[in-house]
Amino acid sequence: MNKMKKNVIASVAKQSFAALSIASLVFMTACGDDSSSGPSSTGDEPELSSSSNDDEGSSSSKKKGKSSSSVGEASSSSVEESSSSSEISVSLTGVVFGSDYSTGELRWIDKDGKISESSLSFHQDSKVVTNGADLYVLERKGADNITKIDPEKLESKGKKAVVWQVSLDDEANPVDMAFDGDQAWVALQNADSLVKISTEDGKVKKSIKIGKFAYEGEHSPYVADIELDDGSLYVLMQRYTQDENYVVTYPKGLLAIYDASTGDLKDTIQLKSKNPSNVAVIGGNVYVATHGEYNAAYGTDADSQRGIEKVNVSKKKSELLISGEDLGGGIASMVVDGEVVYVSINLGYDENYAAIQALKKVDISAKKVDDVEGFTDMSGSMAIDDGLLYVGDRSVPAVVTWNGKKKNTIKQPKGALPPYNIALF
Question: Which residue in 20, 232, 387, 418 has its CB near the most CB atoms, within 10 A?
Answer without folding.
Answer: 418
